[in-house]
Amino acid sequence: MIRFLLHRTLQGIVLILIVSMIGFAVINLAPGGPLSQYALTPGISQADLERIAHQMGLDRPLPIQYLDWLSKLIVGDWGSSYRDQSPVLSVIWRHMWATLLLMGCATVISVVLGTLIGVLGALRRYSLFDYVATVGAMIALSIPTFWFGLIAIFFFSLELGWLPAGNMYTVGDQSLGDYAIHLIMPSAVLALVNVAIWSRYMRASTLDVMDQDYVRTARAKGLPRWRIISAHIVRNALIPMITLAGLQLPTIIGGALVTETVFTWPGLGRLFIDSLGYNDYPVIMGLLMFSAILTVVGNFLADVGVALADPRIRLG
Amino acid sequence: MTAIPDPARRAVFAVFRGPRVRKFMRHRLAMLGLVTIVLLTLACFAGPHFLPYDELYIDLRARFSPPLSGGHILGTDPLGRDIAARLFSAGQISLTVGFTAMVLSTLIGTAIGIVAGYFGGWTRTGLMRMVDAFLSFPSVFLMLTLAAFLKPSPAMITIIIAVTSWMEVARIVEAEVRGQAARDFTAAARMIGAPHWWIMGREILPNVMGPIIVAATLTVARAILLEAYISFLGYGIQPPLPSWGNMLNNAQQYLDSAPWLAIVPGVAITLAVTSFNFIGDGLRDALDARSVQ
Amino acid sequence: MTDPVLSVRDLRVRFRSGGRETQVVHGVDFDIRGGETLALVGESGSGKSVTSFALMRLLPEAPRCRISGSVRIGGVELLELSERRMAAIRGPRIAMIFQEPLTSLNPVHRVGDQIAEAIRFHRRMSRSAIRARVIELLSMVGIPDPARRMHAYPGEMSGGMRQRVVIAMALALEPDLLIADEPTTALDVTVQAQILELLKDIQRRTNMAMLFITHDFGVVAEIADRVMVMYAGRIVEGGELAEVLSSPRMPYTRGLLGSVPRFEDAGLRSGPLGTIEGFVPSPDALPQGCAFHPRCPHARPGLCDVDLPDLTAVDGTGHRVRCLRASEPLATENTEVPA
């Protein structure tokens, strides 16, 4: 187990290094590089730009600049926002909770519904339910999340008036129930794609497990059907899903971005879009790196989860 | 070179031969998708000729006309432009961007996948770690960052989409090639001293065409979706040039008064993306070597 | 004489796939008594495993697979039971051990828990009583240090140990009948001998009936009281062990005996290492007449390829053969089975 963890940690560190190189390359892609923001300042001269470049160390060779940028990244100096000069990490920190709440709810919905639909589809393969679930999942995968959000707002807020059209809470209310009612639509919209993905993989994984010899053994033991399904089929079929959950992290973060935009949810996605509007490059870059690192860490945790759930990996 | 059995030509044609074509035709959803795409493409490219209005014609007296009024089949937008006309010419852009981005990203992904799978060792490790790293970025974030830094012309949007969606293809191709590189004809070709590029291009590539075609079809679907995302957020195709994504740009604020602004382009996107996904699914069934025979 | 534990009459199994129906078991009859071991022998594809799975009702469900005939255990007709009531039979009445010790156990559960599970859903017993029983079972099947090993995962055990766990699991409720489907095939020779010894020993103590499925006459000679040889979904020869081994009547049986690599037991002449040429016919393309005739060195054209022979008694000992030429004097005694 310890060797496994060390190995995975090492892999994660290598991955974060490559991620940081891509991030650094993206910064330098901006016309004029990180200087571009100053270049827009009215009345700035070429000499001024060069002086700033020298101050920022931009006249040094790229590898040196990269190492400098990387070491700052590691010690938590991610620069400060152009908008209010507060450090990027604290800006991200402030907006993170709303996004985590939204992603958490959406993940719970997609895991529960996706598992249910996937397992049922596998147990009743080729039934009407399975067919509808298969086609439904493919259509769900094809609907743009933001458009589904718009349609949901149109029906549930504008036509029926059941749910609020956006925001995280009603100003002046902020009770738990108020948060909850604001959460329903965005988390359902964000969950849609993931329910589809999860149910497809769960179906395949369940079918795989159902053919295994140990399921036959469980039947030969005379176990009740529910016990065979829960302890021997679903239990084992869920193991690869932990890895999938890690791999799906970027999708769900990306989905959160558009969902937050449509529902004016005050999370990282809103922050990202707002920062784009202000050309707030430090925050944009910070969010880009943050989301990638979050994914790498998420995948690492998924690996640990798989090891905990599967003794073959833990002990192998 | 005649000493080497030439699986190349055989395999290229085998992909489209006999039982596979029939199998694809039997896949009802895939056929439905194919027909939809053909009709949609025809409508987008030929449709504008049959409409009374131009997609850029502004008629402020006819703002927010609901569908089926005053010769506007699908209504008008906040500037009184005909939505049907805009939908069709937006479709030309969105489909072209989606298709071109697919070609580009498939080329990138295939090249990287073949090189990684063929050479193996550190080449493979390095390239596949890069694939993992790219996959760690939420593609919408990466695309928006690039789009914010670079000037978003349709060509640039296409490149940005391609740059952020080649990884799946690379993974699939790499896995396939790893199996192929160990096969006899590859060894035979290597033995007579065929150069690496020749073996990769003529011996291996044709044998992994099936999975590439499937992945490419699904990439079109993905590319159309991605274009819609960034154009909706205002960083993709820039008005006045219409795209399905940017037609939805302001739809939210008129959701109450003019819901057709949101519904019409969204349906078009969903229809196109679903169709490509269905086709991809059918192709997967038909081209998966194990499921034929 | 005591009533048989298991009584099978006219058992037929048909599979349906892609609109085509294929019959793989064509009317099999047999009984097994308590304490008795019946060996069911045949090549792969002969229908012996399907027969054993049919008894356990472990085959796919109705539209894909149809079982007809009668399977009675202690007076209960298994083929008419609901799935729920069948589950109550599996374990306490019939248990089964399988061919693949490496994959028969769920890799994510501890072996002790998997055995306990077999008890828990059939008996009202306290946690500690179940635990004690698990330890008892593990030591009975010869697993050293059972109190510790019960916490191991299958992946931490060798194939032989895992097969012992599967056996412990099958014996947990002291079944009336144990079906062993090639339980030693995947194991190496010394472990194989240990497992056979273990099964014999347990049977002596519990008076359990056993249906032992194998393709290996060496194993049959070790363990069986009676033998049935199966070919293309039919019983082609059956009788007391010594009777069948010493004077096999059906050319197929003789071929199988010739296929046994080492043979010192049961007073059998050790002939040259024989094999049967050709393959078991596909169940949806059975030849007319005796299904074995295309491979049979003694097949007589115009006879064996026309009529399907019945399973008929050859003498008073219960030795039965399905061969048109079985009643002829053994003029072919010197004709060697083709090598």
From TrEMBL, chain A:
Membrane topology term: Multi-pass membrane protein
Transmembrane feature ranges: 12-30, 96-123, 135-156, 176-197, 237-263, 283-309
Compartment(s) of residence: Cell membrane
Superkingdom, natural source: Bacteria
Database matches in InterPro entries: BPD_transp_1_N, MetI-like, MetI-like_sf
Family annotation (SUPFAM superfamilies): MetI-like (SSF161098)
Predominant localisation class: membrane
UniProt entry tagged with the keyword Repeat: no
Domain ABC transmembrane type-1, first and last residues per copy: 96-302
Keyword field: Cell membrane, Membrane, Transmembrane, Transmembrane helix, Transport
Coiled-coil blocks: none
The family this protein is said to belong to: Belongs to the binding-protein-dependent transport system permease family.
Name the record gives this protein: ABC transporter permease
From TrEMBL, chain B:
Domain ABC transmembrane type-1: 91-280
Bilayer-spanning residue ranges: 29-51, 97-119, 131-149, 155-173, 212-237, 257-280
CDD domains, A to Z: TM_PBP2
Subcellular location: Cell membrane
Topology with respect to the bilayer: Multi-pass membrane protein
PROSITE patterns, per database record: ABC_TM1
InterPro entries: BP-dependent_transpt_permease (IPR050366), MetI-like (IPR000515), MetI-like_sf (IPR035906), OppC_N (IPR025966)
Main location: membrane
Recorded superkingdom: Bacteria
Keyword list, A-Z: Cell membrane, Membrane, Peptide transport, Protein transport, Transmembrane, Transmembrane helix, Transport
Family membership: Belongs to the binding-protein-dependent transport system permease family.
Protein name from the UniProt record: ABC transporter permease
Automatic annotation (TrEMBL), chain C:
A Pfam family this chain is assigned to: ABC_tran
CDD domains, sorted: ABC_NikE_OppD_transporters
Methyltransferase among keywords: no
Keyword Transport among UniProt keywords: yes
ABC transporter domain ranges (all copies): 8-257
MF terms in GO: ATP binding
SMART domains: AAA (SM00382)
Gene3D superfamilies reported for this sequence: P-loop containing nucleotide triphosphate hydrolases
Highest taxon of source: Bacteria
Record keywords: ATP-binding, Cell membrane, Membrane, Nucleotide-binding, Transport
Compartments where located: Cell inner membrane
Location (main, coarse): membrane
Membrane topology label: Peripheral membrane protein
NCBIfam families for the chain: oligo_HPY
Similarity section: Belongs to the ABC transporter superfamily.
Name of the protein in its database record: ABC transporter ATP-binding protein
